[in-house]
Design brief:
α14 runs parallel beside α15. Helices cover 30% and strands 24% of the residues. The protein contains 15 helices and 23 strands. A 9-stranded mixed sheet has the order 9-10-8-11-12-13-14-15-16, sandwiched between helices. It has a 7-stranded mixed sheet with strand order 21-20-19-22-18-17-23, sandwiched between helices. The protein folds into 3 domains: 84 residues, MurE/MurF, N-terminal domain (Udp-n-acetylmuramoylalanyl-d-glutamate--2,6- Diaminopimelate Ligase, Chain: A, domain 1, 3-Layer(aba) Sandwich), CATH 3.40.1390.10; 213 residues, Mur-like, catalytic domain (UDP-N-acetylmuramoyl-L-alanine:D-glutamate ligase, 3-Layer(aba) Sandwich), CATH 3.40.1190.10; 144 residues, Alpha-Beta Complex (Protein-Tyrosine Phosphatase, Chain A), CATH 3.90.190.20.
């Protein structure tokens, strides 16, 4: 018999709440649209919604109980009554962390954190029960929710921590209390809210706030490695493991060889040369894989088994999933990297496209604005010109108000179309692609390029596992 995640007794003890009757829940949800049968529904209140309005819908969807602030909302159904549902969710997360015997990792970074988290969870799941943050639940709601879902018998727990402003990571890191804390990269994402990229590095370094005695894993290629290392040491890290191409990296990338729509990776780890396949395209995924393997080892997992699992990493929507789509008298190959963008990740995406050889077609980039760059936005978008030309991109489609600055510096023959919105650009993309093209789609999530991805991939083809040709 499966042990419930939460019972009325354990949840009441964790939150100092009161229950209406006995109940047991196998999961935790804050959204009726994704709620699973048997979940505890937490009625959070925000600036634009009140979860108490959805309690009825939660029970209709199969909730086992609801955590609420007013008993009458339950209408006689199972529940837990607390003074504040947000505080109660945090209390559940704290209690779940306290009772857990899992090895815990926390991951942050300007780019690569979600992909690294997903890949780490994938490789560890083959070696033991693994709880991990779903999707991008990495903020002041998502982290305690993810902790509240931590199974008491989990062997590993993997938690992503994000931020938009200084000071946001530290309290979340103190909730997670990781044995291993990872910084994937430092870049100019969210630059609008920081005085400098160094300030971003300081904010990311907050992940070491509760590392006392644990292991810090840091990208050796960032110019802020020394700063981050000092922050980790000052917080009490027992050791620092580095990864990257830098000669002094503990987990060092030796070679990344494009292989179909994946890569063959050769890396050096503790004086041993290891080779493995990564099923996602691009050298940035090679770097992610280094962080994954270093973290897996630090958590006590078997590194060679973990490396083998990277060949079976499933496609991730919006984060590099590859689709082969019938088109005219042939096909196009689409790399869906539409979820988010920064100058560094946009450069990596164009480098990935440049490493691929079209069969009778072109290298095509559908690019949208990179948001939250503040007063560096114009120069950051103009700087994409060198990456477009360096990687032999044949043509671009541009959407947004910032990225169209490229029309000032690219030759008009390099630009297929421009538009202010994804909706407006879509007809030009549909009419402008040719059989044999390799297409990458990349922008900040707010630009909505998933609309173009959906239009191209429906009727939905089978996503290509990325190490296939």
């Amino acid at each position: 018999m499966t042990t419930p995640l939460w019972t009325s007794t354990t949840a009441a003890a964790a939150t100092s709440g009161s229950t209406t009757e006995d109940w047991a829940a196998n999961g935790v949800s804050i959204d009726t649209r994704t709620l699973n049968q048997g979940d505890l529904f937490i009625a959070l209140s925000g600036p634009n919604f009140d979860g108490h309005d959805f309690v009825g819908a939660a029970f209709d969807a199969g909730a086992a109980a609801a955590l609420v602030e007013q008993v009458d909302i339950l209408n006689g159904r199972p529940g837990l009554i607390v003074q504040d549902t947000m505080s109660a969710m945090c209390a559940l997360g704290i209690n779940a962390r306290e009772r857990s015997v899992a090895q815990i990792a926390a991951i942050t970074g300007s780019v690569g954190k979600t992909g690294t988290k997903e890949a780490l969870a994938h490789v560890l799941s083959a070696q033991g029960n693994t709880s991990f943050s779903q999707r991008n639940l990495n903020n002041h709601w998502g982290v305690p929710l993810s902790l509240a879902r931590l199974q008491s018998n989990a062997k590993y727990g993997i938690f992503e921590i994000g931020m938009n402003h200084p000071g946001e990571i530290k309290p979340l890191a103190r909730l997670v209390r990781p044995h291993v804390a990872v910084v994937t990269a430092i870049a100019s994402a969210h630059r609008e809210f920081f005085d400098s990229v160094e300030a971003i590095a300081h904010a990311k370094g907050e992940i070491f706030a509760s590392i006392d005695g644990g292991i810090a894993i840091i990208n050796r290629d960032t110019e802020y490695f020394s700063l981050l290392s000092k922050m980790a040491k000052d917080a009490g890290a027992s050791s620092i493991i580095s990864f990257g191409q830098h000669l002094d990296s503990n987990m060092r990338l030796i070679e990344c060889i494009p292989n179909g729509f994946g890569s063959l990776i050769k890396a050096r780890w503790q004086n041993e040369l290891i080779s493995y396949q990564v099923s996602q395209p691009g050298v940035h995924w090679a770097h992610n894989s280094l962080a994954v393997l270093a973290t897996a080892d630090a958590l006590g997992a078997e590194i060679h088994s973990a490396a083998k699992m990277l060949a079976t990493l499933p496609p991730m929507q919006g984060r590099g999933a590859v689709h082969v789509i019938p088109w005219g008298d042939g096909t196009i190959k689409l790399i869906d990297d539409s979820y988010n963008a920064s100058p560094e990740s946009m450069s990596a995406a164009l480098k990935t496209l440049g490493s691929l050889r079209p069969c009778g077609g072109r290298r095509v980039a559908v690019m949208g604005d990179m948001l939250e760059l503040g007063d560096t936005s114009r120069s950051a978008h103009l700087a994409l010109k060198k990456h477009i030309e360096k990687n032999d991109i044949d043509t671009v489609f541009l959407v947004g108000t910032e990225i169209t600055a490229l029309t000032e510096v690219l030759h008009k023959s390099q630009i297929s179309a421009t538009a202010d919105t994804a909706d407006a650009l879509l007809p030009s993309v549909l009419s402008g692609l040719r059989a044999g093209d390799i297409v990458i789609i990349k922008a900040s999530n707010g630009i909505g390029l998933d609309l173009i991805v959906s239009a191209l991939t429906k009727p939905e083809p089978s996503p290509l596992v990325s190490n296939q040709g």
